[in-house]
């Protein structure tokens, strides 16, 4: 059983905060612990910042997952940006084209339980899922 | 009788119809928190302004501006103004047409134009003023936030604390860096404690800025200690794979401060201890 809950458009830097707060609230409602809430908020922050930095514009959407008894939160970050040239490089720690720490995407993969990255010239889609521990 | 005179002469009637129709749809979401008296009073004021602007052949700008400001300060929605004016327009046209009993199309257009000519400038002015007031509030708050965003507190000689509360964005990160570096030089600081207890999320960007700031502080010859790292933040930092090993970190400001005292070769001595010492000495003297 799936249900699309909400989505946040990322255009300005402050939209990152909006997306993060929406995600944090949802994860709270779904019963995630405080550490997982922080993980989810941080992952959203990374994904939203990537959209803002590289694609300028995009969207973060949230989906509540009910695979009872498991409950989870699915985060999808979509943009129509230039796409990622080297998919294996971005998943390596320390790789960055913007002078950052280069820990964003590999970090998100470690913060979440499931992670998927698809990218071509038409844009990028990152899907990440976190399951709540019962 | 011309249009203006007709409306003015019957302004009481039109206003009372307006008040009835006004119904305050736009306030419905708020109505539980706004008293009826308040709404009545504002409606009354609103009507006064509309009528007096017609009387004087032009809007009294000051009154209009005051009214718009009042609506903003009350936190009432934009819709209160636009809806109010729309209803007033409709009621006036209806009233005039009723009075003249006209079926003539041209006359109808003449009445509508006359009333629009009177209401439209009012509407424009009120809307502009409303949004200007709103923008003013936002820019003031932004300024106030900026003042709060990167405070540097010298707690004693050589030790300074920078408590960070809230979200850190790029602008704020720049401000933090500037304040930190100029403060370190100005206060001749040896140890700076950056407290991130109030920072909700530490992602790679925030961590990057903190690392850069700490590195810059190190270049100035001072030490930077990161304090207030909550357990969940510690876990996310590890998950992200961020290396914060170049500078000391502590869980709380208290522990960080103790380390800062050690580094600057200071000690906090309790007065009670001294008293006891003195008493001991006195005792010892007494025994002799």
Automatic annotation (TrEMBL), chain A:
Lineage top rank: taxon: Bacteria
CDD domains: HATPase_RsbT-like
Domain Histidine kinase/HSP90-like ATPase: 35-134
Residue intervals passing through the bilayer: none
SMART domains associated with the record: HATPase_c (SM00387)
InterPro entries assigned to the protein according to its UniProt record, in alphabetical order: HATPase_C_sf, HATPase_dom
GO terms, molecular function: kinase activity
Keyword vocabulary terms for this entry: Kinase, Transferase
Protein name: Serine/threonine-protein kinase RsbT
UniProtKB/TrEMBL annotation, chain B:
InterPro entries: Bact_StressResp_Reg, Globin/Proto, RsbRA_N, STAS_dom, STAS_dom_sf
SUPFAM superfamilies (UniProt xref): SpoIIaa-like
Domain STAS: 149-260
Entry keywords, A to Z: Phosphoprotein
Domain of life: Bacteria
Entry's Gene Ontology molecular function annotations: heme binding; oxygen binding
Key word Phosphoprotein present: yes
Protein name: Modulator protein RsbR
């Amino acid at each position: 059983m799936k249900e699309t809950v909400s989505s946040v458009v990322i255009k300005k830097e402050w939209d990152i905060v909006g997306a993060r707060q929406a995600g944090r609230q949802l994860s709270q409602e779904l019963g995630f612990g405080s550490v997982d809430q922080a993980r989810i908020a941080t992952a959203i922050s990374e994904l939203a910042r990537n959209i803002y930095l590289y694609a300028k514009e995009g969207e973060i959407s949230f989906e509540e997952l009910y695979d009872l008894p498991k409950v989870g939160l699915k985060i999808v970050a979509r943009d129509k940006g230039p796409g990622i040239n080297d998919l294996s490089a971005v998943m390596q720690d320390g790789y960055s084209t913007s002078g950052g720490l280069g820990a964003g995407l590999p970090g998100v993969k470690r913060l979440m339980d499931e992670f998927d990255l698809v990218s071509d010239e038409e844009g990028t889609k990152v899907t990440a899922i976190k399951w709540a521990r019962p | 009788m011309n249009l203006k005179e007709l409306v003015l002469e019957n302004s009481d009637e039109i206003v009372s119809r307006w008040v009835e129709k006004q119904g305050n749809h736009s306030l419905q979401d708020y109505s539980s928190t706004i008293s009826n008296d308040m709404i009545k009073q504002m409606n009354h004021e609103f009507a006064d302004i509309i009528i007096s602007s017609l009387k004087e052949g032009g809007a009294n700008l000051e009154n209009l501006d005051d009214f718009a400001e009042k609506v903003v300060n009350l936190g009432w929605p934009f819709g209160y103004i636009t809806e109010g004016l729309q209803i007033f327009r409709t009621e006036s046209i209806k009233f005039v047409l009723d009075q003249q009993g006209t079926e003539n199309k041209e006359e109808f257009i003449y009445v509508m134009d006359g009333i629009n000519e009177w209401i439209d400038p009012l509407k424009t002015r009120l809307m502009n003023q409303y949004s200007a007031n709103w923008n003013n509030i936002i820019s003031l708050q932004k300024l106030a936030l900026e003042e709060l965003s990167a405070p540097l507190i010298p707690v004693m000689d050589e030790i300074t604390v920078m408590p960070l509360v809230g979200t850190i964005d790029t602008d704020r990160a720049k401000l933090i860096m500037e304040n930190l570096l100029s403060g370190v030089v100005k206060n001749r600081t040896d140890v700076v404690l950056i407290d991130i207890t109030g920072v909700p999320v530490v992602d790679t960007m925030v961590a990057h800025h903190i690392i850069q700031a700490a590195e810059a502080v190190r270049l100035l010859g001072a030490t930077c200690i990161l304090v207030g790292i909550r357990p969940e933040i510690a876990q996310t930092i590890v998950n992200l794979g961020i290396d914060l090993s170049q500078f000391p970190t502590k869980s709380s400001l208290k522990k960080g401060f103790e380390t800062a005292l050690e580094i600057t070769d200071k000690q906090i001595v309790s007065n009670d201890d001294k008293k006891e010492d003195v008493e001991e000495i006195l005792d010892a003297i007494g025994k002799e």
